[in-house]
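Dear Dr. H.,

I hope your travels went smoothly. While you were away I took the liberty of generating a structure for the chain from your last submission, since the lab meeting agenda had it listed for discussion. I wanted you to have the full record in hand beforehand rather than looking at slides cold. The sequence, exactly as received, is reproduced here:
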Amino acid sequence: MTKVVLTQPLTAQAFAPFGDVLDATGAPDKLINQGLCGRFHDRAKLDFGPDGRAGISIFNAEARALPYTLDMVERHPDGSQAFIPMHQHPFLVIVAPDENGTPGTPLAFITNGAQAINLHRNTWHGVLTPLSAPGLFAVIDRIGPTPNLEEHGFASPWEVRAP
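The corresponding predicted structure, in token form, is as follows:
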């Protein structure tokens, strides 16, 4: 029997146990640049540990489609990881709660095309999964001397699909 995960819209409340949703909804925290720019201030809890620093990289991922086969998740024990799309296309975000050192049942979210995410340190998550080309993202994550990656392959894959 195939295990299925249904996608849901990405909301700050549903995503809160795993990270931050970065968007510019509602009123800005303040207006800057002579009142011509709204600043949505300090939207992510960046965490790079005591021996890390922030790095900004550019990722260019191949577009995928639903249904999507999820056979592996990963996590970064030493730092957070933010994905900021350099386009206005929705992308798939998969996360899973930690259950005694292994990932639990995955959850799948679809962004609205104007959202970015910041995954908290040690959060199980799927790989970068754009649903349209280009798959260009700015990524802010930890740069440091220790390996900051743990992968977990599922014994049986999950099928991620729209409801």
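Two observations you may find useful: The first strand starts at residue 3 and ends at 9. The helical segments are 12-15.

With kind regards,
E. W.
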